[in-house]
């Protein structure tokens, strides 16, 4: 289990960070134009949870 989060931490966190930032900017633009933001919110939340959880698991394992 920890190895999956270690893999995410090493290889996927940079990609997840880009996804997080792009979705955050997209949500801000859509809120300004009063458009629907549900898909971007789901991607933003998923990427944030994976980033945070991976960092927490890696820190608790002590890698």
Distance between the termini: 14 Å
Tally the helices: what do you get?
Answer: 2
Give the tally of structural domains. 1
Q: Taking all residues together, what is the mean pLDDT?
A: 89
Brief account:
With about 60 residues, the protein is mostly helical. The protein has 2 helices and no strands.
Which secondary structure elements does this structure contain, and how are they paired or packed?
Layout: H1 2-32, H2 38-61
Helix pairs in contact: 1-2
Description:
The longest helix has 31 residues, at 2-32. The protein is built from 2 helices and no strands. By secondary structure, the protein is mostly helical. The radius of gyration is 14 Å and the shape is elongated. The chain has one domain. Helix 1 (2-32) packs antiparallel against helix 2.
Key terms for this structure?
63 residues, 0% strand, elongated
């Amino acid at each position: 289990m920890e190895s999956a989060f270690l893999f995410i931490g090493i290889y996927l966190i940079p990609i997840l960070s880009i996804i997080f930032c792009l979705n955050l900017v997209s949500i801000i633009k859509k809120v300004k134009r009063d458009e629907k933001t549900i898909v971007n919110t789901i991607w933003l939340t998923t990427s944030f949870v994976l980033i945070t959880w991976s960092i927490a698991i890696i820190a608790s394992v002590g890698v």
